[in-house]
Amino acid sequence: MTEKKIKINRAPVMTLWAAVVAERIGYTQEEALTLGKAVAGLNAQSKGRRLGIFDDTDGKQEEDKGEARDEKKAETVTVLGRPVPITHTKAGVRAVSKGKPITPESVQRYLSQKFKELDAVREAMEALANAYTPKQLTGKAYDLYEKFRPEIPEGQKGWGAAGELNLDTIRSLAPE
Question: How does pLDDT run across 78-94, given as a tens digit for each residue?
Fold first, then answer.
């Protein structure tokens, strides 16, 4: 039987949820996986700067190299309310991180390593996403994530900490 609660940190949860949302709003599974990973990475960068874990001067050094400036000029799509830089490849849309396209295979490996019950979690998230039209989901996706994400301690103490992801909570958020 599937565990109803899974101990995990937030980054893989956000990666998977963003991928499920991206797929629901029209991207292929491969495209969605890269978008999900980028959303989680961008979120971690912002939070890390806010908590003082990452120095703001790191971003300024990147800008000096022109890398951050190029990504700001790049085409973007919005997932979970966050603009994600993308590129178009022969295989489709790919999110970009540090100037390079993210590969869906690397994201799938990451998720498989982090989730013991990946299929069950994906199934619960897909049921929630499918309970909304793509347009409705676009507006609600981050709020829904905030309702089911694992609880962790506030501030630096919570950085990278694992919490409980409750599959019943995810399922309960779908309107009847």
Answer: 999 999 999 999 999 99
